[in-house]
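Researcher: Go.
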Amino acid sequence: MKIIPTKLLVSTLYILLSFLVVNAVSLSTNKQKPLPQPLVFADQRLAIVYPVIQNFKSIITSDPLGITKSWVGSDVCKYRGFYCDHPPDNQSAIALASIDFNGFQLGAPTLDGFLDQLPDIALFHANSNNFTGTISSSIAKLPYLYELDISNNKFYGPFPSAVLGMNGLTFLDIRFNFFSGSVPPQIFTQNLDYLFINNNDFRQKLPDNLGSSHILCLTLANNKFIGPIPRSIAKVLSSVTEVLLLNNELTGCLPYEIGLLKEAVVFDVGNNRLTGPLPFSLVCLDKVEQLNFAGNSFYGMVPEVVCELEYLVNFSLSNNYLTNVGPICRSLIERGVLDVRNNCIPYLPNQRSIAECVAFFAQPRFCPHMWSYTYIPCMFPGFSSSASFIPQVAPTP
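Model: Structure:
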């Protein structure tokens, strides 16, 4: 009988013992490892949006502030940027009511499948991020959405027409994106309080008949709007406090009806291609603080009555072809309120050259309804009592 060497026997026993120990440890570890527990949500409505949020998280391409690190677990209401409240249809329920991603610098190729899948959302604020793509038409089905701010992102395509007919929407901010084409005229008649569409690439005429509206703040600046400012402007914007039309391609003469914007605090049409005299009706803007007509081709006199406006703190007329400034307006120049640099006003510093002014006035200049430029459709201190019968809408010349 062959005798097994002692050294080989010991080695074999050591290997068997090691195998048994490893398996015992493995079994012990498996027994101690807890099984995944199902997520428990405070409300079924939160359970519905949880996978929507997680799917959106999976397509986030940049998160320099580490925002999405908090988007874990069943307590959606504690996720950074997410806020819960009682939905309008059930005051005992808890739902995702608002999102505030402002300044988070998140990047994602689309909001489709996210925003449009949040059935109880009322406010969605996401300015200053790097979101892109187009806006899904499905957002029209969100019954409670009343504030939508996607400004300062990289969205593109046509105007997001899904917002048309969203009767609950009161605040729309799509500025500083790459939307293009035309703006549906219906948006101006919708029940919006605030409409910000500046700094896009919209190109069209301002609608001649904007209808009725109660917009409080309208910014159309830094686009490519063309054509004249319609005479119906006072009808649609009668309650507007800020009218921002600067940096477009507007042409023609100012209608006197801009003097009927009685709530206006800011009126800015700087850097367009407007021309003609400044209407005396501007004196009716008795709440205005800022007037900007710089960078156009206005000519004639600066109306003295406008320089008497009580709250006026900034009146910019630079880079035009104005020729006359009275003593009241000169006092505003001295106080730094009125800027008339680079015009054609004799004996004032920093004016255009004589040759430049002569070349401008060598071309015929004419505006329709010339009679209307000295027309004042309101009462103001020092004005004759004949103003009492002046109508509030444009009369037939």
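Model: The first helix runs from residue 6 to 32.
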